[in-house]
Every structure is written in C-alpha cells, then in structure tokens.
Amino acid sequence: MPNLRKLSILLSIVMLILVSTSVSSPVKEKRIAVVGSSVATGWVTTYHNEMDMRGGWARWMSRAMLDREWATINLSSPGDTTERVLDRLDEELFPLGVDVVIISLSLENEGIRKENPDAVFNKYMKNLKLIVDKCKTNDVIPVIGLCYANNQFEKKHYEYIKKANGIISEWDVESIDLLGALNNGNGKFPKGYNFDGDHPNTLGHLEMYHAIVPTLFDALLEKKNPQTHKPKLNGFHRFVEGEHSSTLSFIPDGIMHSFTISLNINMKSAGNLVTVRTDGKSAVLELMQDNKLVYTSPDGKKYTSEKPVIIKDWASLSIVNRYATGDLLVYSNGKQLLKASVKMSPFNIIIGGKSAFDLKEIFIHRSALNANDVGMINLGGFPRSSLEVYSNFTGTQFKAGEKLVNFAMSKSALIFNSDDRADEIAALKKKHQAIEEWKNEREQKTKPTLKLDNSVLDSYTGDYELQKGVIFKISREESVLYLSDPRGMKVELVPLTDTRFKAKIPGVKIEISFEKSKDGKIINLVMHDSQGEMKAKKVK
Q1: HEC string for 215-274
Q2: What is the helix (H) or strand (E) element at residue 525, kind and residue range?
Q3: CA distance 474 to 68
Q4: Predicted pLDDT at 317
Q5: DSSP 200
Q6: How far apart are CA 205 and CA 142, in angstroms?
Q7: CA separation for the pair 379, 394 (Å, rounded)
Q8: pLDDT value of position 493
Q9: 170: closest CA among 237, 233, 125?
Q10: Which parts of the chain have pLDDT scores under 70?
Q11: Burial of 152 (0-12, 13-18, 19+ CB in 10 A)
C-alpha cells in the first residue's frame, strides 16, 4: 500500500504541474490538496469507464475548480486514519506549497464500531484538531470534510457522527457537510446512492460534491473576514404586503441539490414566506389564515402542518430539502411540523413577496441539516458547515438590486428586490443540462447488456459451502444478484451469460458461474480468478 500511495501521489503531482503550466495567470497558481481515506479517493465510482474511480466528489470538485483557476492534488489513501495523516503531513503535504487542504477522514476507519466508541471518538477529535493546528502553523488553510454515512452504523454510532459534526461545525475552520448531502435520516446511505456498506456510488459522490460551496476557496484565499460566531443581532427588516412588498432573491452559484433555509422570523399575516423556483415550476411555503403552514410542491401537491405556528412573536423556521431521499421537512422552533415528498433543485430562492413579516436573519446551507443542527440554530447557534449564505438585518433600508452583506465564507449573496437575473438562471440551467447529459451517457455505458428474468436469478439464491463452516450466500434484491462472503461483505453480480456472472469489485477480476445437475437443479457455485477456480456446494 505505501508504494501504491507514493505512485498515486507522484502521478497527482505530475497532473498538478501540467494543470499549473496550462493556465496562464499573472498570479501564483492556486492549489487545493485533498487528504482522506477511500471515499476521498473516489471509491467506488464510474466517470467514463466502469469503476475508473474518476467520479468521486473530489474529482468533481477538481474539474469544477479548474474553471476558477484552482489546481487540485489528491493525496488520499484508502484506510487512512487521523494518526496516519498526522504522520505523513510533513513529508507529503507541506512540501507541495498548497493554499488549502481538505481533510476528509471517517470514524469508521478509526474503529468506532469495533473498539470502545468513547475512546475512538476522543482520539479522532483530538487528532483532527492537531491536524488542523499543524496545517495553520504551516500556512495551509484547512477545510474539514465532516463524518459521513455508513450502512453498518447502528443508532449509537450515528449519534457519535452527529456529535462530531456538530462540534466541528462550530470550530474556527470551514467544513463540508458530507452527511447532510447523503443521509437517509438514520446515518445510512439513501437507497440507490451507495456501492456497498462503506462507500457511496457515483451518484452518491455527486451529492457529496454538491455540498461544497462553489466560492469557498476563493473566499478563503481572499481572507474574507471569517465569522466563527454569529454576529450580534441589532435589528430586523420588515416585509410588508401589497404595493410596497419586498423580496430577497438567491440564485445558487452552481447546482444545488440538498439545502436548508433557516429564518429568524416574526410572522404577521397569511401569505407566501418562501418560494423555490425550479426549472419552470415553483414550490411555495405559505402561512394560512388559521396560522398553519402549507407547502405546495412543484407538481402542485399540498402538505399542511398538523399544528399552527407561533405568530406575532419571534420564531425559528427551517426548510430542509433532502434531495437523495426525495423529501422536504419543515421545522418551527426546532420541532418538525410537516414532511413532503419532493425531489427538487433550486434555480432561485425567494423570501417574501406576498406576506407581512419581520426578519432578523437568514441561513442558506448547501446541505440538509439534521434535527440536531436545526435545534442548534433554534438555540442561537451558528453551524457553519456548507453554509453558503448568512445575512442579518440592522433596520437598514435597501435599494432595489442591492446585495446584502454575507457573513458566510462565500462570495454568494442575497439580492434585494431583483427580478432581472435571467442570465444567472440561464447559466445554471446549462450546468444542469451538462450533468444530465453525462448521466445519460454513463447509464448507457454501464447498463448491463444482458438482463435475466427474476425466476432465473431466484434459482441461484441460497447457501453454498466452500468448506466446513465457510458459507457463501447468494441473494436477490429486485433484479440484481448479490454474493455475500462469510464476513458479510456483499458484492453485486453482473450477468455475462445465463449461468456466468462478473463480481463487481474495483480492480479485481473475479467471475462466478453456477453448475447444474442432470435434472437442471443448481448444485455448485464456482469462483474463477487468475489463480484458478474454487467450487462451493449448494447446501440450502
């Protein structure tokens, strides 16, 4: 593994040099490094060719950052821990002279499931802080990729993940909410977004990439005044109904999937509070005459809160859009009021327009906050991970088209009373179209050429004994066959013929075939690799 890692680093440095010399710029080349474990390396993804590892979130980021004249080098190594990274910073990272480093390590590799979880948690947090401090000492700006989902986590492990992320998000360091991008609500990957229990698939990595604030690195390099604590609230802005109504508009700099909008609001009368415009449609959250909230999805379906909200008093209101799971949650004062089924990506987020309310502050996160994070905002906290916009109000009167001060580490901004943003929306549409074209192309390339009937697949399911006590299991989920080894590792089997399959394992060529008896019953499973073959007898 060390030799492979050194080769990977050498190749990354060569690519960095090539990129640096290909971009003409009068200023010093801007450089980002990524230091992490297997997920940060791109396991297990497909970009052009099957499992080429080029569809990872760090790869998506590096391609996007080229347009902003940033070069990226990935020093990540599968299985890395905080201890290993501490050991190799001086030799492998600091000599490169990068400006920013993203540190993305998991509690799973630290041993959270296999060792004393309290001891593992404390060691992880201590070492991560040491990594951050060491980077700052060496004039490298650290950014942390927060702990992310894992299908092997139990409820107690998920609590540790949320605890770690909550603490880090209030450190004096920027961070990326990878959990908020990809979470089924219980600390596991949403269905259809993972390769195996430990790793997201290509679509899962894409969701993680969307949690990165596009202008984060430029803002860091420009030494934008960081807000490690929420600025003092000295006033509010009054939104009125009718002829003199006002709005705030936010257009994402890049594609946004999961997001959270949080308002410190004093609602006065019924009407629209937030409108999210998608491609040709709109979703609306409004306050009704009975003081209940109603959310209307882009397809026109309405969802009503069971209980009324507090009006004519200050309240915390959060709208959480979980793209991968296809739902939206609305919270008031930290308590969930409604849940809607929706999968939307915003082109324009509009606050106000047809209702009367006072507003003290607004957060827009590029991730779906969990209940702990929403509760933190309700209690006056300042969770900064994947925070793209934070603005508050001092009673100042704004002019049409004026940008509000954004205290988040981002160059995005809310704009007051601005409807003329067609060019920005058109540019965003092009980015969406490019991603959809890539998805369609990838789907065609990776689509199995052979599809077997479920009855054929079912004939292979069961237990196969390699030797006494060593059992391999074959199972079917929908129209896909899986092989599970005695340790519980689960591998997808892709049909090559009606009796022979390819094991979907990165970098390894293994095929599985099934043998039948004279009367057509399955009797053996045979594993084929470059060393030969092994036969397991069907016992169940």
Answers
A1: CHHHHHHCCCCCCCCCCCCCCCEEECCHHHCCEEEECCCCCCCCEEEEEEEEECCCEEEE
A2: strand 522-529
A3: 48
A4: 97
A5: B
A6: 21
A7: 20
A8: 92
A9: 125
A10: 1-28, 225-229, 242-244, 395, 419, 445-448, 507
A11: middle
CA 294 – CA 275 distance, rounded (Å):
12
The pLDDT value given to residue 327: 96
Sign of the CA dihedral with 171 first, then 175, 179, and 185 last: positive
| Model pTM above 0.90 | no
Task: Write down the pLDDT at residue 243.
Answer: 60
Dihedral of CA atoms 214, 219, 221, 222 in degrees, nearest 10, equals 150
Reduced to 3 states (helix: H, G, I; strand: E, B; else coil), residue 69 is coil
Q: In 3D, which of 72, 44, 42, 46 has the Cα closest to residue 57?
A: 42
* Span 105-124, pLDDT tens digits: 999 999 999 999 999 999 99
| Longest CA pairwise span in the chain (Å) | 86
> Is residue 496 a contact partner of residue 481, using CB atoms and an 8 Å limit?
no
The residue whose two tokens read 């300042």 is 382
Three-state secondary structure call for residue 137: helix
Rounded to a whole number of angstroms, the distance between the first and last alpha carbons of the chain is 39
Query: What does the block give as tokens for 139?
Result: 């004039």
Burial 85-124 (b: 16+ CB within 10 A, else e): beebbeebbbebebbbbbbbbbbbbbebbeeebeebbebb
Cα dist from 192 to 188, 256, 281, 313, 460, whole Å: 12, 19, 26, 42, 23
How far, in Å, CA of 110 to CA of 534, rounded? 34
**Domains along the sequence of the chain with CATH:** 2-212 (3.40.50.1110), 237-429 (2.60.120.200), 454-538 (2.40.128)
Rounded Cα distance between 321 and 344, Å, is 8
